[in-house]
Amino acid sequence: MRRMLTEFWEFVSQGNLVAFAVAVVIGSAFSALVSSLVRNLMTPLIGALGGQPDFSALAFTINDSRIRYGEFANALLSFLIVVLALFLSVRPFNAFLARVEKQAGPASRTRPCPECLTDMPVAARRCAFCTAEVGVAEEAGPE
Question: What is the distance between the alpha carbons of residues 123 and 136, in angstroms, rounded to a whole number?
Answer without folding.
Answer: 6
